Amino acid sequence: MVEFALLLPFVLLLVLGMLDLGKAMHYRNDLTHLANEAARFAAVNKNPGPELTLEESIKSQATTEELRSGGTPGAEGTTTGPLEVEICFPDGVDPQHYEIGDPVKVIVRSEYKWLSILGIGITQELVGTSTMRLEKAWVPGEYGPPTPPGLACP
Question: Structure pTM?
């Protein structure tokens, strides 16, 4: 019994750490998938949700409510920050002159809190990115503002 009591915290930390790592990898894969979806929609100048901006449409496609909204602020067990979607043009092209063939980059971010169930809460930013070439002319401001003129994509 004494040995079990001494080993139990380490075994629980190991098991919970593996589960948390799996959840973080799932969220990272989801962010990459969302970035790919957004870049494709931006490349063909199409919005999947006509009543929403492209960013809002992509946020609504996240696989879990926790990833979409960031969970309840300040609640125990919340593992992610709010989802952020950024669409930008990395070549620094004038926003009025986006042409077919120009690259469009999408960055999807969220913060992940490691082992939040144990109250440790070490945060790390999870990022998914995708870059594609425009296949149709971009209409500035139609899907929400891209990076303002003069600012480069990160």
Answer: 0.78
Residues 6+ apart with CB under 8 A from 87: 38, 42, 54, 55, 104, 105, 106, 143, 144, 146, 147
Question: Is the pLDDT higher at 110 or at 45?
Answer: 110
Helix (H) or strand (E) holding 77: none
Which residue type sits at 151?
A: L
Contacts of 89 (CB under 8 A, 6+ apart): 95, 98, 102, 103, 104, 105, 146, 147, 153
Contact 78, 107 (CB under 8 A): no
Q: For 49-89, what is each residue's pLDDT tens digit? A: 767 777 888 888 888 888 877 765 555 555 677 888 888 87
